[in-house]
Amino acid sequence: MRNLNLNLIALLIGILAPACAYAWPGMDMPELHVDGRYLKDSDDNIVNLHGFGQTYSPWFNEQGSKWSNYDVEACLKYNKEKIDQILAAGWKMNWLRLHMDPYWSNTPGAQTTGENDISAFDFNRFRTYLNSVFIPMAEYAISKGLYVVMRPPGVCPHEIAVDDNYHKYLKRVWGFVSSQARLKNNPHIMFELANEPVNIMDTDGQYRSNTDGCNKNLTRFFQEIVDLMRGNGCNNILWIPGTGYQSQYAGFAKYPIQGQNIGYAVHVYPGWYGSDAIKPSQELGGNYGGGYESFAVGWRDQIEPAAAIAPILVTEMDWAPEDYNASWGKSITGRMLGEGFGANFKYLADKTGNVSWMIFTGPEHLAKFDGEAGSTGKYTLYNDPDACLWPVYHWYKEYAGDNMPAASSVSLVLSPRSGDITTDHLMMPGTCSTPAVVASYNGYESPIETDLDVAVDNSSVISWDNGSFHAIGQGQATATVGYTVGGKNESVQLSFTSTAFPFLDGYFNPSIWETGTFDSATHTITTGQYGFAGWKYSSGIDLSEYHYLIAELDGDNNCGLSFRVFDQNNYWSDPAQADFGNAKRAVIDLDNMKSIQGRQMDKSHLYIVGFWSMGGRQFRISNVFPAMTSDASGIDDIETVTVEQPVEVYDLYGRRIRSGIYRYEATDGLAPGIYIVGGRKVSVLP
Asked: pLDDT by residue (tens digit) across 326-367?
C-alpha cells in the first residue's frame, strides 16, 4: 500500500461515522423516532446507538457478592455506581438495555425451572418493584445521557403460541408498563417486547421456527402486544424479537409488524449466522473457519430482510477468548474480512447502515477499563485486542466523533485475507470474495468508506456485484480495483483462479460439524464423532451442465464414510447421500438427485459438499469432480477438455507455475502433488 496521510484518514472516519450523541450528565437527548429503515432524531439525522446492558439481580451483579435479600437501596447504589464508573472510564455510550429481572417479580422461595418459567410470577411484586427499582434506574440512566430500552422479566419458554399462557403474561406486563405515566411516551425510553423466543406453534400445531406458518404466527403474536400498547396511548419505540433465540428475521419481510415506531431486536453471538466461534454457543452451536464470507451470508439471509424495512437494535452481543471466562460469546476479534468474529461484526453492522448495538459483557468489567494498552504475552481481558473490550472502547469513541489517533496503516484487503493481496487468489464457484479499504490502529481495525471502481476481464469466471467478487465458473480472471483515500488515487490488480473442489486449508473445512482435522498435502481427513468435513459455497455452486458428481477414496473405509450434497444452505437440511461401503468411489446422480427423505433436489445451487463419518478414524480422498458419465475418473474428466486450448498451471497456494501451455503437456516434469490446470485439479503421481 502506498503512503497516505494517516491523520486525514482518522478525520475521514469521524466524518463518515453515522450521527450519534454520547452520554454525559445533563446532555441534550433529542426525541428519537423511526423513519422507514432508520432511527432518526428530531432534526432528521440518522442515529445509531451504542451501549451496554444491566440486569438487576444479585447473581448478575458480580455473582451475589455485592447485595442480596431484596435490598432495593443496595441494588440501586451498586448499579448507579456502575453507570457512573463506566462513563468516567471514557466509554462513549448512549443507551442502556434494562432487564426487569424476575428476581424481583417472582414469589420468594418459589421453585422454578429457570428464567423461562413464569409460574412464580407475582403481578403485585412486579408492580411494586417496577416503581421502586426499574423506573428509578431508567430515570437515573437518562439523567446520565443514556437512552433506555426495557425488556420484560425473564426469557421466553422454548415453545410459545398465540393466546398461550406466556402470550397472556406478556400482555399483562406490557399492558401495565405502557400505561405508566413515567414511562408512556417518555422520549428516552423504548421497549423490547420479549427475550429470545425459540419456537412458535406452526399452522399444523407443531412447534417450529422460520417456516411461513411460524413467521405469520410470530407476527400475530407480537402485533397483538403492539396493538394493546398503542391502545393505551403508548407511542414509544418498540423493538420486536425474532425466533431462534432472536436470530431469525427473514419472515418479517413478508409479515412485518404494522404501525409506527417499530424496529427489530436482534441477538448476535459467535457461531450464529455462520460466524466464527472458538467454542460453539449453547443455543445455536457454530464452529470456526468460515470467516467473513460465511458470516455475511447468514447476516444477509436473516438480518438484512428486516434491516431493509426497519432499524435494527442488537440487544445482546459480546466475545472474548474462552480463557478469560468473562463473556457470553467465545471467539476473537480477528481481522475485518478475515477470520474471527468481532471485526467482522462491526464491518457488517456499519455496512448495513441502520444497526445500533451493544456489548453484553458485565458492567463491572466495563467499569474497570483503563485504556492502557497491553503487550503480547501479557494481555488481560481489558487490553487484549482479541477480546471485545479493547476494540469496542475505541470503536465507540470513533462513532462518537472523538479525535482518533493516526492509523498505523491503510490498505485494500480482500476476504479471506489469506496472504498478499497482489498474489493469485483461489476461489470456488458459488463463493464470494469482498474487498475493502481498512485502517489499522493499535489492536483494532476500522473500515474506510470509499467507492471502489472495479473492472473484471473475464466475467464468465468472476463477476462483480453488490460489493463482492463472485466466482461463477472455473478458470482465471483479473480484476482492477481503483479507489481514493486521503485525496490520493490508488489502483490494485487482483488475479483469481476459480476451481470447484480445492483440497486446501481455508477452503476445505474439516469441522463443518464437530471438530475434525485435515492434511492438505495428503488429503487425509479425520472428522469429529458423527462429524462432517467438506466445502461450503456461500452463493451456491451450479453443476447444471454435469450429470454426476463423483468422489474417489484413496485407501480403506473404516469409518462408515458417506459422500453428501446439500442444496440448502443449512447443514441440518436433508442432503443427497452416497455411501462408500467397500467401494473406492461414491457417485451422486445429479439429474435424479433426491434427499435422504426423498425430496427432489436442485443441482443448480449446491451449498455444501463433503463427507460424513463416524469419526475418530482417518480417510483419504483422492479427488472430487463433476462428470458427464458415472464411470468417469478425475483424469478422464479432465481429458474431455479440448487439448488445443492453452491453459495456466497453479499450485495449491495459488502461485502460477506455467502459463500459456497446452493441457497435454501442462504437468510434464512437475513434482508429485496436486495442481490446478486450466481451472481443474490434477494429481501428478510419483
From this structure: 999 999 999 999 999 999 999 999 999 999 999 999 999 999
Other beta carbons within 10 Å of 260? 11
Report helix angle 389-400 to 342-352, nearest 10: 20
Residue 232: CB atoms within 10 A of its CB come to 16
Q: What is the edge-to-edge ordering of all strands in the sheet holding 462-465?
A: 432-433, 468-471, 462-465
Q: Is residue 611 exposed (0-12), middle (13-18) or buried (19+ Cβ within 10 Å)?
A: buried
Q: What pairs with residue 447 in β-bridges?
A: 438
Q: Give the span between the Cα atoms of 41 and 39, in whole angstroms.
A: 7
**How far is Cα 311 from Cα 47, in angstroms, rounded to an integer?**
10
Which helix (H) or strand (E) element contains residue 614? none
Q: All 3 cell numbers of residue 590?
A: 445429479
> Can you give the pTM of this predicted structure?
0.83
Query: Residue 2 in contact with residue 490, Cβ under 8 Å?
Result: yes
* Closest by Cα among 364, 278, 374, 360 to 322: 278
DSSP state of 130: I
Sign for the pseudo-dihedral over CA of 21, 24, 28, 33 = positive
Residue 539 carries which DSSP code? E
456/665 Cα distance (integer angstroms): 29
Q: Taking a C-beta distance cutoff of 8 angstroms, is the pair 121, 169 a contact?
A: yes
Q: Is 640's pLDDT higher than 50?
A: no
Cα separation, 63 vs 102, whole angstroms: 16
Residue-wise burial string across 439-465, b where 16 or more C-beta atoms lie within 10 A, e elsewhere: bbbebbbbbbebeeebebeeeebbbbe
3-state helix, strand, coil in the chain (%, to 5): 25, 30, 45
**CA 48/CA 296 separation, integer angstroms:** 20
User: Cell numbers of 426, please?
Assistant: 483461489
Residue 277 and residue 269: Cα distance in Å, rounded? 8
Whole-number Cα distances in Å, 131 to 7, 180, 516 = 50, 9, 53
State the Cα–Cα distance between residues 559 and 633, nearest whole angstrom. 23
Residues 6+ apart with CB under 8 A from 679: 461, 473, 474, 475, 476, 497, 498, 499, 647
Read off the amino acid at residue 285. Answer: G
Question: What are the two backbone dihedrals, phi and then psi, of residue 468, each rounded to the nearest 5 degrees?
Answer: -140, 155
Whole-number percent of the chain with pLDDT over 70: 90
C-alpha cell at 527: 472428522
Q: Tens digit of pLDDT for each residue in 593-634? A: 999 999 999 999 999 999 999 999 999 999 999 999 988 765
Q: Residue 346: CA atoms inside 13 Å, Cβ hemisphere, count? A: 29
Q: At a CB cut-off of 8 Å and minimum separation 6, what does 26 contact? A: 143, 145
Residues 6+ apart with CB under 8 A from 106: 112, 120, 121, 122, 125, 153
Q: Are 34 and 259 in contact (CB under 8 A)?
A: no
